[in-house]
Design a protein that fits this description.
6-stranded antiparallel β-sheet, globular, alpha/beta, 8 helices, Rossmann fold, single chain, 5-stranded parallel β-sheet, 28% strand, D-amino Acid Aminotransferase, Chain A, domain 1, 29% helix
Length: 329
């Protein structure tokens, strides 16, 4: 099988890779390859030749230029039985990769392209979940806010990933902060909701989900925006509330499949969803240790049997995952 890691939307060798993005991608890919190899899969992955050897239990195809990467992608997808894309959804990148995998007749170990398209858009996700009666953080296109509406506000790219391009407006609304493009696509504005930022790690298929872990997100304000520093996987127990929320999300967005992340705020009036990530997220890197089980084996079982694995996750310990080189984890 092929685990395809796309480091940047700009293409390999056209620009220096972002160190934080490389570290985040490496954490996910190393964990995925380890788990899938332990579960019996013969894994191939593409790798930017400027990066160090990650010591993976996999066959690595080293690539350089954009055209070289494209040729290697075509060859490896043709040779693989199944492909797991690890890529940002911005710019329709993940959706395009997912469609290409299915078009070539290979098994896609990820969300269906239609679900990726919905989840890519912050506004589209909020509208879909809101129509299903799921509590979300109020989300509007930036042009729908009137001058002087009291804040604070969080401004995001409609199809952004993580904290990239996210800005905090502490006072009343007076238009987009300096430096932000009006689009297209048009940025969205969300009300700033105080509370604990967490994510859910879900295993999804057929409109159903299984909650694997609840993860505390390490977010800090950085200038006019935010910085994601890492997370604590399996940071808290669930009384069933968040598992039911994950199930509601899977039912509301048909085509969510495999590993899915849901970002939310545990506010004073209950959980409110910020966005849905239709792909493995950073917290995957800690799942094996947090659960004392191999989540890669669950993914392969889901693909083979087309139903949820019989084994239920049994949270064992909290696992810190740091994206900072000066911290352990």
């Amino acid at each position: 099988m092929l685990v395809y890691e796309h480091i940047s939307g700009g293409g390999i060798a056209e620009a220096r890779p972002d160190e934080a993005l490389v570290r985040e991608g490496d954490l996910m890919v190393r964990a995925l390859v380890r788990d899938l190899a332990e579960a019996g899969a013969a894994v191939t992955t593409l790798r930017d030749r400027r990066l160090p050897d990650p010591g993976l239990s996999a066959r690595i195809r080293w690539v350089g230029t954009r055209s070289e990467r494209g040729r290697a992608w075509d060859r490896e997808v043709h040779a693989a039985q199944a492909v797991l894309p690890v890529a940002p959804e911005s710019g329709a990148l993940l959706e395009g990769l997912s469609r290409a995998i299915r078009r070539r007749g290979r098994r896609l170990l990820g969300c269906h392209p239609e679900a990726v398209r919905i989840a890519t858009g912050k506004g589209a996700t909020a509208a879909r979940l809101g129509a299903a009666g799921i509590a979300t953080v109020a989300t509007r296109p930036a042009s729908h806010l009137g001058p002087g509406e009291p804040g604070p506000w969080v401004v995001k790219p409609e199809d952004g990933v993580g904290c990239d391009g996210v800005r905090l407006v502490n006072g009343p609304w007076h238009g987009l902060p300096r430096g932000l493009s009006p689009g297209p696509p048009e940025p969205v504005v969300q009300a700033f909701v105080p509370g604990e930022p967490v994510s859910l790690s879900l295993l999804c298929a057929g409109g159903r989900s299984r909650l694997l872990s609840v993860n505390r997100q390490w977010l800090t304000q950085d200038g006019g925006g935010f910085r994601f520093r890492g997370c604590t996987v399996n940071s808290r127990a669930d009384d069933g509330t968040l598992a039911r929320l994950g199930q509601a999300v899977a039912a509301a967005v048909p085509g969510l499949w495999g590993y899915v992340g849901v970002d939310l705020v545990l506010a004073s009036d209950g959980p409110r969803i910020l966005e849905v990530n239709p792909r493995p997220t950073t917290s995957y890197a800690g799942l094996h240790d947090a659960l004392g089980a191999n989540p890669g084996a669950w993914l392969l079982e889901l693909a083979r049997n087309r139903r949820m694995p019989h084994e239920e996750p049994r949270p064992r310990e909290a696992v810190p995952i740091s994206l900072e080189t000066d911290r352990a984890g």
